[in-house]
Design a protein that fits this description.
82 residues; mainly beta; three-stranded antiparallel β-sheet; two-stranded antiparallel ribbon; 11 strands; 0% helix; elongated
Amino acid sequence: MKRSSARTHTGIIGMLCLIAFSTPSWGQLQITTADPAVAAGNQLSLTASGGTAPYTWSLAPGSAGSINTSTGEYTAPATVTV
């Protein structure tokens, strides 16, 4: 019996998709969060420091979920297929 490698997860998303960011300066930039895990459908706040504000947040093409481009608040999708 062959098993499918695709599974749908509705629990904790252990790893965020690559989060891309841009800043108009090459200053040292640090990205932090209180907890790198987020439950499906919930939010995760990211904070930037260093570099030159304002920061613009974005996700890499094909990433799951969404991100507020000005606040850095990531919203996980309701389900993720891996």
